């Protein structure tokens, strides 16, 4: 947008400069025409130089506009490619890599439930590979309950409390699919971190509607940590990155021995 504004300003300044040159030319030519043919010829000859200057200025601006337009298009294409790479990296990290790490840890019984989860993830991945699109999420509450059942297979009991949404008139129904997906996948990553690092088998998801939008909080009473959390791929891309892309924000609070709270804040469109 800023590049377009600069181009427009450049064009306006050049057009004004050309007008300052051309308008006197037109005025003099008109006056010379009234005075006679010889005077007109003399005037036209005298004004040939400024006319050439104006023409060269217009050509110069045209070239500059072309150059800046090409540069702006190149930047936009690179930004789009970077965003697509980011999306692919998140997909591989959040779904494929996490499942592989769970299987590699070997601290879960490979019962029917775990095999069912692996089969479900494999079907999800196949659909992504064949269509190039992620499956669109459904209702936020239903997606969170599905997530809780999936983590139960990893021996993490997840309590989902969405009473605050019902009391506010179900505002989550107005969330675009992209926003629902961001919340669900960020929650998935936060719960994965509970399984891997918190040393507890219980977590709680609370969803409320506040004055500034929807607030989803993932809380555990695990070992916690002091200071700032390590900004690994999961936190930086899968949680903070996802919420930032849809206009949200993330607040993480923790203390050693007192558990961790991950708060996801997201404005709800009117």
From TrEMBL:
<keyword id="KW-0418">Kinase</keyword>
<dbReference type="InterPro" id="IPR050482">
    <property type="entry name" value="Sensor_HK_TwoCompSys"/>
</dbReference>
<dbReference type="Pfam" id="PF02518">
    <property type="entry name" value="HATPase_c"/>
</dbReference>
<dbReference type="InterPro" id="IPR003594">
    <property type="entry name" value="HATPase_dom"/>
</dbReference>
<dbReference type="GO" id="GO:0000160">
    <property type="term" value="P:phosphorelay signal transduction system"/>
</dbReference>
<keyword id="KW-1133">Transmembrane helix</keyword>
<keyword id="KW-0902">Two-component regulatory system</keyword>
<keyword id="KW-0472">Membrane</keyword>
<feature type="domain" description="Histidine kinase/HSP90-like ATPase">
    <location>
        <begin position="181"/>
        <end position="269"/>
    </location>
</feature>
<dbReference type="InterPro" id="IPR036890">
    <property type="entry name" value="HATPase_C_sf"/>
</dbReference>
<protein>
    <recommendedName>
        <fullName>histidine kinase</fullName>
        <ecNumber>2.7.13.3</ecNumber>
    </recommendedName>
</protein>
<feature type="transmembrane region" description="Helical">
    <location>
        <begin position="7"/>
        <end position="30"/>
    </location>
</feature>
<dbReference type="InterPro" id="IPR004358">
    <property type="entry name" value="Sig_transdc_His_kin-like_C"/>
</dbReference>
<dbReference type="GO" id="GO:0004673">
    <property type="term" value="F:protein histidine kinase activity"/>
</dbReference>
<keyword id="KW-0812">Transmembrane</keyword>
<keyword id="KW-0808">Transferase</keyword>
<feature type="transmembrane region" description="Helical">
    <location>
        <begin position="36"/>
        <end position="58"/>
    </location>
</feature>
């Amino acid at each position: 947008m800023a590049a377009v504004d600069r181009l427009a300003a450049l064009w306006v300044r050049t057009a004004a400069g050309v007008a300052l040159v051309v308008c006197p030319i037109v005025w003099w030519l008109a006056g010379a025409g009234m005075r006679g043919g010889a005077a007109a010829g003399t005037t036209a000859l005298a004004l040939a130089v400024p006319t050439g200057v104006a023409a060269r200025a217009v050509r110069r601006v045209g070239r500059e506009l072309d150059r800046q337009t090409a540069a702006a298009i190149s930047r936009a294409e690179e930004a789009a490619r970077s965003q697509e790479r980011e999306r692919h990296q998140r997909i591989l990290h959040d779904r494929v890599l996490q499942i592989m790490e769970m299987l590699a840890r070997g601290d879960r019984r490979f019962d029917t439930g775990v095999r069912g989860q692996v089969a479900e993830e494999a079907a999800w991945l196949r659909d992504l590979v064949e269509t190039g699109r992620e499956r669109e999420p459904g209702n936020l509450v239903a997606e969170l309950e599905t997530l809780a059942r999936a983590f139960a297979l990893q021996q993490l009991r997840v309590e989902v409390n969405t009473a605050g949404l019902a009391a506010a008139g179900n505002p989550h129904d107005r969330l675009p699919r992209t926003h629902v997906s961001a919340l669900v996948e960020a929650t998935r990553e936060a719960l994965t971190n509970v399984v891997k690092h918190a040393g507890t088998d219980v977590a709680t998801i609370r969803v409320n509607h506040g004055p500034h939008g929807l607030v989803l909080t993932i809380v555990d009473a695990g070992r916690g940590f002091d200071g700032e959390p390590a900004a690994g791929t999961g936190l930086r891309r899968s949680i903070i990155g996802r919420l930032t892309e849809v206009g949200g924000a993330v607040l993480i609070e923790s203390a050693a021995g007192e558990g961790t709270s991950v708060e996801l804040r997201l404005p709800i469109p009117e």
